[in-house]
TrEMBL record:
<protein>
    <submittedName>
        <fullName>Uncharacterized protein</fullName>
    </submittedName>
</protein>
Length: 41
C-alpha cells in the first residue's frame, strides 16, 4: 500500500518537473522569437 502511494508521488513529481521544463522551453522560445523579430531590419 505504501509502495503504491510512493509511486503516485513519484509520478506526480515527474509530471510536475516535465510540465515545468516544457513551460520554460516555451518561454525561451517565445523570447527568442521576440528577439529575432525585434532585430530583423
Amino acid at each position: 500500500m505504501s509502495l503504491q502511494r510512493y509511486d503516485e508521488e513519484v509520478v506526480i513529481a515527474v509530471a510536475s518537473y516535465f510540465h515545468l521544463t516544457v513551460w520554460i522551453v516555451q518561454i525561451k522560445a517565445a523570447f527568442a522569437r521576440g528577439f529575432v523579430q525585434e532585430n530583423t531590419p
